[in-house]
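User: Quick sanity check before I run a bigger batch. Here is a single chain. Can you write out its predicted 3D structure?
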Amino acid sequence: MEDITSRRKVEAERESLIQKPAAKNAELERFTYTVSHDLKSPLVTINGFLGYLEQDAASGNMDRFKADSQRIHDAVDKMQGMLGELLELSRIGRLVNEPEIIPFGDLVQSARELVYGQIEAGGITIRLQPNLPAVYGDRQRLTEVLQNLLDNASKFMGDQVNPRIEIGQHGKEDGKAVFYVRDNGVGIEPDYHEHIFGLFNKLNSKAEGTGIGLALVKRIVEIHGGRIWVESEVGAGSTFYFTLPQSAPDES
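Assistant: Done. Predicted structure follows.
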């Protein structure tokens, strides 16, 4: 019998090399469409209200002139925020700090301090599972993961009387620890479970932010070799699960 192990390995590597560019091209197309679509919105607002400013000036209506001018400023601020976060997204995977072993509890503590205002204002209780394992990665980027997940949970508590966020670890997947951030907020319809990780995808248009936070989280987790997903139902809260390595790739 012919030993075909080596041939199969070469064929598998060849198939992988073929699929990777196709996946990257598809991702680039989605990125380009999203950016061009979402950045048009503030531009349309600016263009429209510039016309109103001319009418306001001609009529001498200074109250309306000030209101229309403010709308233009708001649109400019929105675009600046989008561009700033797009720049941050593009840097992930290229400007990475030296990876290290980090106690997961330390990451939670750092992230909690960054969103302290929202947590206190919402009267939210945070429960942290004791004796969480350490992870291997970029301390700053992984703090951003927790920061965005805590911020997201605090925004969508709704009218919950006893708002609560639980953070812990449950089992492993492919040798990586599975962590979770669970809230008892408004929840998410199943049809939107994948949608929320896209660029500028906001389920509530009135919520603060540009809608890029969960896209950043997904990119950071994937750069670390993990994955992220959500389990949620409307009115039953949401649980975001994500996997992270506990050691360097060449370690057992």
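The longest helix spans residues 5-59.

User: Great, the batch can go ahead then.
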